[in-house]
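Let's practice the habit of predicting before peeking. Look at the sequence and jot down your guess about where helices and strands might fall. Then scroll down.
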Amino acid sequence: MSKEQWKSIGLNAVLLVFSAVTILPFLWMLASSFKTNAEISALAQRFLPRNPTWQNYENALNKMSFLRYFVNSLSYALVISLITIYTSAIAGFVLCKYRFRGRELVFGMILSTMMVPGVVTIIPRYSMMQALGWLNQFQALIVPSLFTSFGIFMMRQSCAAVPDEVLEAARIDGANEFYIFHRIVFPMLRNAVASMAIFQFLWAWEDYLWPYLMIRSESKQLLSIALNMFSGRFSTDYAGLFAATSIAIIPVVLCYLVFQKRFIEGIASSAVKG
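Done guessing? Here is the structure:
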């Protein structure tokens, strides 16, 4: 075999190892969701359950209002994703295709917020939400996420691939700026939109600390916080926790399966130098 073939085999072998290391914990969790707590805690571990049972899934659904928490998280993730994609696309389009004084300064300030750890801004944001009387309200989760610096950066880079000639031709034909954005530019950003949809949905679905601080009512609680109900003071229902978590990852997997092709193309297109 040639040197290139050996190189390809070696690369595929490395990717296979990394894939196995990544996937194995999820497969172990799925298999453990059919085990009993005694089997999970046993010293002699095995991958497949000795006596598979669906009782863990029944307990997960009965122990807490799982469907209500699931719907709350799904609604929150979808709303945040849709709003953030739209606002990021508009901001990215303006920062890429419009020439105005201070444009680079504004973009630099947006990028600088990516360097600040989210933990640093929690106390100021919490004080603002408390002053507005938004504690235990969904707007306390949604409003701080209206804009994201990562999304604006991705959309700005993607807008660089939109030909200026197309925009000028639309303006000559009498199209206004809103028409140009919604009917010409936004459809051309579908790859970047798909990529950001996956990122944003995943971040919103797994968000824990901020919803934990903001939402106090059990009826409004998100699934990521509700999973703590399986952790007691002296013991943890690992079997029920694995079962509930196995259900909780379904939306994320489906989101990636639907958008995976556009996701890969979107990551590539966002690398275009603006």
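How did you do? DSSP finds 15 helices and no strands in the chain.
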